[in-house]
Structure to design on (876 residues):
DNA sequence: TATGAATGAGGTTTCATTCAT
DNA sequence: TATGAATGAAACCTCATTCAT
């Protein structure tokens, strides 16, 4: 890690020039492997994914993978971690609540849908659902880092909504899952049934929020 | 094991035991294989399941599987069909709507939760979510036989609820998924996070129905 | 084992005809694998031996090896056992001592040399010396089954020789290894240095016995 | 580690430290590699030894090995030579025979046992026995430099003993191997069977010499 | 000269599928 | 029909060797 700064301290300005010492290139390779592995694992699941294909897609030799990961299982586990970390960072960087709770949730969930539905991120969720039971450590990590935090955040918002009188159903605070449920369903729906019956996730979200907050009077 | 007596059971007359003829025994074997395969596929996923284990669990020889199924893929596909058929039959045999729509849904969904959450049937749902993208024919079949019918049924109930004034949110009829969402979430939640935070699916369902129908006045 | 007699009880006389039911053929295959593995392990040592070559030499597919042995290590261990067992049987079937102790030892050791020096059996000894430290279980087995028994037998003979006045050096009974040493040396010598300086093991044995029993008066 | 100071030690004058110039450091590295390789080859045999481990143990990078040796095989061959050379030097520097032949042999063999049994040198003997057949050049070298010289020396001693009347068995001169045999056996015994039955090599040697020279009258 | 990341051939092992019995 | 031994393609993983730095 500290090595990155060692051999070629970048000389100050000028920058762009060599652009790649050993450590940098190693990190790039690792990233390429993570990228490629994500694609393959999502497309085929853990067991059916071949390291050969990951290597080919990442543009490295098979052996190179083993310089970065102990074996296929560890690769899968670390990979999920690696991909999830920025998501967590995002969650933590949420702006403080201003405006109505409904607007807040609508904005947040809207963004979520836009960034998740039909994207690789969404597929990652499905991958975790699919492989979780075989990779308890992955499920645990996902629960700890994403689910439990997300739940806590939702609960806080719901309580705020109740306090402000926007939400009437007081028991909702006990089940923040209800708030998330349609989004989850949308994610799964898209990857399984999109070609039979596409789903307008944003509109469905609006209807769902109407159930919770009551229908909008004017908008 | 008992097989010693199996080989020529009808040695006596010609039709002495019509119930236990070749066709029946074959069907029994096929059932045993289906049962065993379900368990294994659910426990390990398609790719990681070994035919050896299925055969062992079913108490047949490995070769026997190939007398009933063309290959592993076909077995998986047929198997999902086989298991789903009774579910569909159930859906079709629903009693005509009597009483309030809410009671109807509550009863139905309550039963559903009881029979699905934490049972092999629930795992089947997760299995389809997991393997669907690799088995479009499975996803298609599931959509056609279960999802689309379920959706249609839900939509009909919702429209009835709207007509009777039990449901205020008219747009809900466009998204019957919202009605199902918490149940789906509960299924997935149980298999991934039950040990971190068990979920009272029945109670969550009640809260969700309160959102849709309004809180119960007396009960 | 008992299966060998099951399916085709050989019909009485006639014999030669089918000659090979399933169990028999399996045993033949196993033998072929053991034979081939011996050759390869002796020629290259454990680590450098390829299962591919063993399979090829045995005339079976690579996978077949795994029907008989758990993995390469177990194969090596079981193989040494398999090959050593008849040797042990031989040792146990030695005739009771008649004639002079010297004649007895000379005959026995002579036969030993004839059957071991320059044969695969001799190479097995070298193999055990070579791989023993990496396969304690093999060394243990060899010590228990062959070495300790051989030592005990030698000691008994030496004590008999001392009692009869044929052997003067009483302490020899404490080191039966001395009796064996030249034979062992001969085995190793042949496989390492034969082409530089062939060794007449039988004659060397005679000289060694002269040291122990005194030179023969007439012969 | 300490390497930080290594890079330019002679920065001062031009010949400030002639002892620690490039050539010397290279030789030191080569020695470290030889040492480390010996340990590893002895512990695992040729094929199972990894250059990675040798490099790690020697404290150099893997690539450095290739600056000193062409490849793994050459390294093994050169290494045996390197380690054996001092042994040969020792043999050549033996003091001229004074005192009785028995004392001479007893002293020499006693020292040999002390320095070889249970030491790395003894393991080297076993290593050569183990790998010799796969490395004829090693066996040849060992025969030429050590065995044949040792044999010649032993033979001279035996002839001296016969001439002086200390040894009665005249044919012994044809088989100096007999003199060495117990020592060889002891070496092998220790590395294979020490934990089952430790062997007092010095005492066994004494008994063996008693056989050759006759029991000591007084001592 | 020294490094160690990268390579890829080659090894062990697994497992879906076949087929003689 | 049923069996299960046998097959061999293909997977994962290792490690001697190379080469840019």
């Amino acid at each position: 890690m500290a090595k990155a700064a060692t051999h070629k301290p970048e000389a100050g300005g000028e920058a762009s020039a060599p652009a790649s010492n050993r450590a940098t290139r190693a990190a790039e390779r690792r990233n390429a492997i993570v990228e490629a592995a994500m694609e393959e694992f999502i497309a085929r699941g853990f067991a059916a994914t071949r390291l050969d294909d990951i290597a080919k897609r990442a543009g490295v030799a098979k052996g190179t993978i083993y310089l970065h990961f102990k074996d296929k299982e560890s690769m899968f586990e670390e990979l999920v971690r690696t991909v999830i970390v920025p998501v967590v960072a995002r969650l933590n960087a949420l702006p403080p609540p201003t405006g109505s709770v409904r607007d807040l949730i609508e904005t947040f969930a809207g963004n979520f849908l836009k960034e998740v539905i039909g994207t690789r991120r969404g597929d990652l969720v499905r991958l975790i659902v699919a492989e979780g039971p075989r990779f308890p450590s992955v499920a645990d990590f996902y629960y700890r880092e994403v689910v439990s935090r997300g739940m806590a955040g939702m609960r806080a918002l719901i309580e705020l909504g109740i306090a402000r009188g926007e939400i009437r159903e007081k028991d909702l605070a006990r089940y923040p899952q209800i708030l998330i449920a349609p989004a989850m369903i949308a994610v799964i729906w898209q990857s399984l049934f999109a070609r039979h019956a596409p789903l307008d996730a944003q509109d469905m979200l609006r209807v769902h929020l109407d159930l919770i907050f009551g229908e909008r009077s004017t908008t």
Observations:
- The two ends of chain A are 53 Å apart (CA to CA).
- The longest helix of chain A spans residues 136-163.
- Residues 16-71 of chain A form a domain with the Arc Repressor Mutant, subunit A fold (CATH 1.10.10.60).
- Chains A and C do not touch (no CB pair under 8 Å).
